[in-house]
Amino acid sequence: MSIFRAIRMPLLALMLLGLAPWGAPVSARAADMPGKVLVEALQSGGHTIYFRHSSTDWSQNDQVRQAGDWKTCDGARMRQLSDAGRDLAGAIGRAMKALKVPVGRVISSEYCRSAETAKLFGFGDPETTTDIMNLRSDEHVGGHDAAVANARRVFATPPPDGTNTVVVGHGNLMRAAIGEYTGEAGAVVLRPKADSPTGFETVTVLDPKDWQALATAHAPMD
């Protein structure tokens, strides 16, 4: 049984991976072992994994009065990660490492909750950028369309050879730039595709719990 939404991988790609016999229905094969297909694809690199920041304290509210206010980690001024969210980000990072998913660049929005999520994954300090922007503050980067275009350029940039790029941002940007929406700490796996209108395509969508399930089922034996 699939633990996440069906992987959007064409039959040819499955055949090239040696995971589907000629003529096998994609849906049947994906139902048999979608986790294995995804893990092997990620282990090969070439993907961008866009995460919504981890779980936050919803008793706190964002108060952006001028550009840069979002950088503060003061919960009296901006919504921050909850303790559970910090634990969850660390757990996701450990599961990715157990799966031997190679991570090169780590990029996040400048919002503290996104940058902290990215750092807690444990792949090094993130590159923070306004190219990944909460759309509630999009007026500071030229408006909605500019914010979406900036993000899509990041998503369409091929990762360094043999690695995946991790990007941490916001749910509203995910919906506008990718057309998917998850809860906090959810992720969309993308890969560059030059002939796509956006410059990339969606491979699959993951809930936070899926990382540990994938690690339990498919982590390589040392």
Which structural traits does this protein have?
222 residues, Rossmann fold, six-stranded mixed beta sheet, 8 helices
List the helices and strands and how they pair.
Layout: H1 11-16, H2 26-32, H3 34-43, E1 48-52, H4 83-98, E2 103-108, H5 112-120, E3 127-128, H6 144-156, E4 164-169, H7 171-178, E5 187-192, E6 200-206, H8 208-218
Helix pairs in contact: 4-5, 4-8, 6-7
What does the model show?
By secondary structure, the chain is an alpha/beta fold. The protein has a single domain (47-218), classed as 3-Layer(aba) Sandwich (Rossmann fold), CATH 3.40.50. Helices cover 36% and strands 14% of the residues. The chain is built from eight helices and six strands. It has a six-stranded mixed beta sheet. Helix 5 links the parallel strand 2 (103-108) and strand 3 (127-128). Helix 4 packs parallel to helix 5 (112-120), helix 4 (83-98) runs parallel beside helix 8 and helix 6 crosses helix 7. The model is unreliable at 9-33 (pLDDT under 50).
